[in-house]
Write the structure tokens for this entry.
Amino acid sequence: MGWGGFLGVEYGIVQAPLGPDISGPPLVAAVANAGGLGLLRAPDEDRPDLVKELISQTRKLTDKPFGIGVILDFPHRENVKAILEGKVPVMHVSWGDYPKELVDEAHAAGVKVIHQVGSVEAAEKAAAAGVDAVVIQGIEAGGHVMGQLGLIVLLPRVAEVLRGMDISIIAAGGIVDARGYVAALALGAHGICLGTRFVATHESHAHSLYKQKIVQASEKDTEYTNLFGRARWPGAPHRVIKSPFYERWKHVLRHDENELNQPVLGQTMIYGQIKDVPCFSGVVPNVTTTGDVESMVMYAGEGLGLINEVLPAAEIVRGLVEGARCIIEQRLTGIIHASQTKFSSATMV
């Protein structure tokens, strides 16, 4: 069935790696225990001891497969080594090339590789390198966005190009419920990857105001921009929830300005390290963040208008699976049956 799993998990539902620490062990384990694929997020610097600790903490909470995401734009060699040594079932890589020799190295360690891409050409390149799955990210997605096309255009093109290959196609961008899940399947995906929907969960490490803003926002309340985190991660556009701070500065901040030497909005603790959060920082608020939280960046995709409450992660996974079954078995089957009946009657006449 279309809602079946891949990469060793029960269902074709992936929780995106949410940085810097939003998808910690509690969220990842909750998704894994519900039959989906939860993904930790490796730190943006080489901290292999921390990576090992995150893996260990997650394994205490679940005996199901899970994974960890690595941003290739940041130092990552030692983190990847720790992931392979720890034999984490799945490694998710993005924002960079991951050639065949590195994919083969992961496979030799028993680790499957997902490569997130934003174009048909990048999907072809990842498939040629031998990855096990590709995440196809549309411009509707929240957070840092690689794609420049809408998912409804990009996804079927990738499905055509990769037809017949032993590779799972995972759709990402604006998907938050069973309707989006079924639509992605119809466009050629084997599964879906959700970020914003899993930020707004009980187990997420996001600040309560961040979750509240997702629930309160409409589909008109996000914007694709490059306002935040320019020094930390140049050339990485992102989709954010619009705020009074964002509206005030989106056309004012010069292109040669960034978050360096800016006034401090507050503080946050990330993996035990206390850090200042300056204006235009690209770091989202977590549960420890203090100060002017409302003026801090909050990433979200265009589907947030369909998110009406903060829920347990397992309930989200269950709702996606049961909702997809209902749509496919009842609504779509009913449409097909009605069409067949109408066609048969017309033929008889």
Notes: Residues 158 and 345 are 38 Å apart (CA to CA). The mean pLDDT is 94. The two ends are 36 Å apart (CA to CA). The chain has eleven helices and 14 strands.
